[in-house]
Structure formats: structure tokens, C-alpha cells
Amino acid sequence: MARDTPAGDLRLAHLTKTFGAFTAVDDLSLTIAQGSFFALLGASGCGKTTTLRMIAGLEQPTSGQVLLGDRDIARLRPYKRPVNTVFQSYALFPHLDIFENVAFGLRRRGIRKVDEEVRRMLSLVQLDGYERRRPAQLSGGQQQRVALARALINHPQLLLLDEPLGALDLKLRRQMQIELKRIQSEVGITFLHVTHDQEEAMWMADTVAVMNAGRIEQLGAPTDIYEYPATPFVANFLGQSNLIEAEVTGQDGDDLLLTGHGSRFATPRDRARAHAGGVWLGVRPEKLHLVTEVGAVPAGRNAVSGVLTDICYAGVSTEFLLRTSWGQELSVFTANSDPDAGLVPGTQVTAHWHPRHSFVLPRGGENETPSGDREPERIEAAT
Amino acid sequence: MSALAHLGSAHSAPGAPGGPATARRRHRFLPYLLLLPGAAWLLLFFALPLLQLAAASLYDPNGSLSTGYALTWAFGNYPAALQAYWPQFGRSFLYAGLALVLALLMGYPLAYAIACKAGRWKNLLLVCVVAPMFTSFLVRTLAWKTILSDNGWLVGLLRDVHLLGPDGRLLATPIAVVLGLTYNFLPFLVLPLYASLERLDQRLLEAASDLYASAWQTFRRVTLPLSMPGLIAGTLLFFIPATGDYINAELLGTPKEYMIGNVIDSAFLVRLDYPQGAALSFLLMSAILAVVFVYLRRAGTEEVL
Ligand SMILES: Nc1ncnc2c1ncn2[C@@H]1O[C@H](COP(=O)(O)OP(=O)(O)O)[C@@H](O)[C@H]1O
Ligand SMILES: [Mg+2]
């Protein structure tokens, strides 16, 4: 049904929103292909909701354009836009039953025969038989599905989802993620999904945009962003990274040679976003391997030695903290497929990794420090 | 009730003097104990006088204060009173109804603006709504008498723009009485309405406009139904005293504008015809109750719309 509507990608062009002196969304430009599942990922307060509200028409952009196909909809009233929203708070109408909540959009557009469509939607979100209940009589997960059905029934060109799973517990959230993905591929509508949960973003979306302080830091397929982050912020917001301060010292064929804290490293040139001067040498914790003897490091690998300070057993994996000679703590994740005993805090170990698993990022001004242990969930919970 | 239960259980901590049995008994009687002062007050100053009034409405109509009254179960007082004063009855409901319409037209937007759009001016505006109540009802109505007087600026202005004829007047007309009623009881409508609009979740309005509802449809389908409790309370608080009012007709009207309140007033205080005054009071009470009952029944179903 959605394919009846004219083709149209969503394009945001230099979209900016300021509240007084505060810039909530800063010169944001991006394109979302029709029919794709796009995730906007960022910590709380980075401007995600404001961006969605500008697309939905609930907030006027200070400047910039919102283009759907080749139509600029930035100045249209919300009810004139072929866009629907699943609100962070659901915003179900408490005085209407579930049937009327879902039928609301159709009725406002003067459609009389809504019965069949409403029932189809309710069964799509697996809420058959709940027609006559009031929103207050449903659980959080059910309310969330009503909100989804209420938006989807209008067959918008674009569906905006503002942290729709934020209020659900872990198990229900997993279940709804699967359902959302299923529904998206079934109806073929473009989904713009806002979340602060990096796993959710990577897991669900075709394309992820990482947002920070009103700007997009990086945009791409989940694997591309994860394997080759563009900035220290992305490297630590999407999963974790070990970032080691280093200098570029030269080249060897296709490899960039670096020195950091007295050790020498190599990285393929095509994994480096800076080719001279001060840089961050990054590597993901799960790419590191631990050995107890320096001699056991295979040739051609990058290596860092240190002392184990902490070992956390996390079921599927074990997480080690390795304190280097210069005092930095590196994380190492190893899969528990073959748990090796014998590693206890205080053990002298060497971590090594393949050069093509590292990445090199430019090191900017003094104020730029990579925060090694920022976890988006914790940031959200604190605010 | 749950707060009461909590209170009760706080006293019944193990080892407390009296033991659990006394505590449970206290728990059970506490609500009634709390009801007692109010109930006693109502019994003494409302229920008993009401009975007294009911008895008075059935006194022999030929008695008088000087000769004394006899309770002769004179039910004929009722039809007689109705026959003599039905125009005043009709006028009471007509004027109160017109005033209610005017008050709704002014009060709803006012309450909405204060609740949803006033921002930091909210409290100041609320004070403005309530402030007139700090002066006496009588003084306020007398002030209206000045405003509407024949040589006041308002009548002058209306004559200049030919909305009133050269000898047209406002004072001593039904218009003045309706305006007075509207003004005097407006806060009773605005305050409950404000309270329920204030609680309205603005995000619901955004959701409605996201779901293709224009501003009018959003009002009709979301704002209005959700403000229904305040609207019902406000209209009742406005309409009931306005129907029984006699000050506005007395000060701003002439005997031609008299409402049933004026008749009751004069029956008790001027003509000293207690049986008739009492019968009229009961007729007014039952008429209002009937209107309120019908209204609540209709509004009750409306709410589910
Ligand atoms: N109406 C507003 N007035 C002032 N500041 C606002 C307003 N709305 C949002 N902000 C600010 O803009 C920033 C981004 O908010 P928001 O888009 O809600 O963030 P997110 O959804 O990513 O958590 C926040 O710092 C917030 O305080
Ligand atoms: Mg938000």
C-alpha cells in the first residue's frame, strides 16, 4: 500500500534549530533512502527529538530544509505532512478506546470505512481483541504497539520513531525490536528510528547516523561504522575502543608506521584517517589476544605489554583490563569458547592484534580526549 | 481512604498500647470519626432547616406571622405559587441560560489561554480572575450599575455608533441583568475549567496534529472531551447560583426583569408570606435538580464520544 505514494527520499539540508543562544541541531544534512530503516543514534540531549520534531512539523527549523522527494515540507503544518510519529511517551488518547485511537488518523482525513483497516493493523501488531480497551488498561509494551498501529495505519511516506522501546524492559525490548524489523520489511515504509541504544541501532538499521551535540559525527552501514569509526566519539559511543596516543613516523609499502609510548605499530594506509603528525591508534577490545610470554606474539602483529588489573567474567565473554607501562588501561574481550584459566590479576601479559584491525584517527586540539568508558545507557539513565 | 488506612496501620505497630484488636477497631471507626464534624454541621444547619422549610411550604396559606401558622398539609400552595409566578421561573432559567452561554464563550478561551498559553503570566492571570471576589458581591454589582448607567461612557459610546437609539439604555433592561449574572459568576466557570485544561497533556495535541487533525479537529476530538470534567463542574457551579440569584435583577433590572429569587426574597422579607416563599423555594430546587440530572445524563454519554 505504501508503494502507491510517490517515490521520495527524505533529505535534510543544513537543518538548524536554536533555542535562544543554545544550538540543539547544528547544520544537519543527511539523506534517507525510501524504504530503508535508518537509525539516529546519540546520547540524551544531543538533539535527536528536536530533529524528529522538525521533520514532523512540531518544531519550526531556525534554518534549513526538510525535503521529501523534491518537495520542501519544512513550513507545512504537521497535519499536512505525509509523516507520522510514534512518540517517546506514546501519547495515546486516554479518552478513546484502542479502536478509536488507531482509527484517529483515518477519521480525521474523512475516511468512513475504517473497520477492516483498523482490525488489520491491530492484528499486524498482535493486538486482536483489544479494540474496546482503554489505553490505561494496557501494559507498556501493548501501548507501544498501539502507538505503532495508530501511526502505520495512515501509510505515511515516512515513519518517525522516537525511542519507542525506551520504556520497555530488556526482554520485551528484544521482542519488539524483532517485531519492528518484521513490520518494516512487511509494509516497506521508511523508518527513521531514534535511539540512544547502540546495539539496537546496529541491530535494526540499514544505516546508522551517530549524532553528537547537534551534529552527525558519522553515517554509514553498522559494520562500516563499527569497524572503521571516523572520530574518537564514535569509536567509544558505538561499542568500545582502545585509543593509544601515537605519532606517525613513516611508511612501509601500504603500511603506516607509528610510535606510541615507546612502542612501534603498523596500520594499513587505508585504515588511517590521518597520515602524519599526532594521531590516535585505535583497536576494538575483541580484536586483542592475550599471551603471557612476549615471545609468543606472532610476527607482524602490533603488541602492547602490561599487567592485568581486573578480570570480569560476563558469561559469553571475559573482559580483561590491562594496565600499560604508561598507565593507560586497555580493555580486552575474549570469547568464552575455551575459557583459559591461569590468568589472574597481577599477571604480566602482552596483548597483540593484526595491523588491519587497528584504525588511525587524527588527534585534534588539547581538549580532545577519548573517554574510554562512556556507555550510552548509563549516560541516559543519569539524565 | 488509603491515606486513612495508612494512618490506622501506623498506630497498630506491634507492641503499641491497646494491641492489634483496638487498633483494628480504631481503623474501622476512624473514617466515621472524621466525618462527624461535617455531618453534624450539615444536619444542624442544612437538613433540619430544610425540613422546617418543607413544613412551612405546607402551612395554611391564610395564616400570618402575627396570627401564627398551622401545618394543614396545604399542598395547594405549590400549584398556586407556580400559577402566580411562572413568568419569573421562566425568566430565571432564560437569563441564567443566556448568561451561561456568554460565560462559556468568554470563559473557555480564557481558561484555555491561562492554562496553556500564559507561560509565566499564569499565576498573575489566575489572581486577576479571582481578585474581584475580594470585594463584596453587592459592591461589584453596584459598580456595574454605574458602568451601565444612562450617562455612563458605555451607553454614550453605543449611542454614538448607533448600536443604541438616542434614548436607548442598558440599565433596567434584561441585557443588564444577563451581563451582571455573566460577570458575577464567571470565575466559578473559569476555575474548574482551568484546572482540567491545565492537566491536559500538550503532547496529546501534538499527536493529534501529527495524525491529520486540524486545529479545530484537535479541539473538538481531544481538548474538548478531555476538559469535560471541568466543563461540567464549571457549568453547574455557574448555572445553579445564577438561576437562584436575585441581586442582579434587583440592582440592574426592574420588576419586569425580576427572577424567581426576587419573588422568594419578597415573599419572606416583604410580604411575609412564609408558605408561598417556602413552596417557591422547593419548586426552584426541584427544577434545578431536574435540569442538572438531565444535563449530567447527557454529558455522561457525551464524554465517551
Ligand atoms: N523547547 C526547548 N527549549 C529549549 N531547549 C530545548 C527545547 N527542546 C529541546 N531543548 C534542548 O535541546 C537539546 C536537545 O534536546 P532533544 O532533541 O530533546 O534531545 P534528545 O532527544 O537527543 O535527548 C537539549 O539540550 C534540550 O535541553
Ligand atoms: Mg529525546
Largest sheet of chain A: 6 strands, mixed
Number of domains of chain A: 2
Low-confidence stretches of chain B: 1-17
CATH architectural type of chain B: Orthogonal Bundle
* CA-CA gap between termini of chain A: 40 Å
Share in β-strands of chain A: 25-35%
CATH class of chain B: Mainly Alpha
Oligomer, anyone? heterodimer
Run of helices and strands of chain A: EEEHEEEHHHEHEHEEHHEEEEEEEEEEH
Can you count the beta strands of chain A?
Answer: 20
The SS-based structural class of chain A is alpha+beta
Superfamily (CATH H level) name of the largest domain in chain A: P-loop containing nucleotide triphosphate hydrolases
Query: What is the number of independent domains of chain B?
Result: 1
* CATH fold naming of the largest domain in chain A: Rossmann fold
Please give the CATH architecture of the largest domain in chain A: 3-Layer(aba) Sandwich
Globular, elongated, flat, extended or rod-shaped: what is the shape of chain A? elongated
Biased composition (Basic and acidic residues) (chain A): 371-383
Subunit structure (chain A): The complex is composed of two ATP-binding proteins (PotA), two transmembrane proteins (PotB and PotC) and a solute-binding protein (PotD).
GO cellular component, one term (chain A): ATP-binding cassette (ABC) transporter complex
GO molecular function (chain A): ABC-type putrescine transporter activity; ATP binding; ATP hydrolysis activity
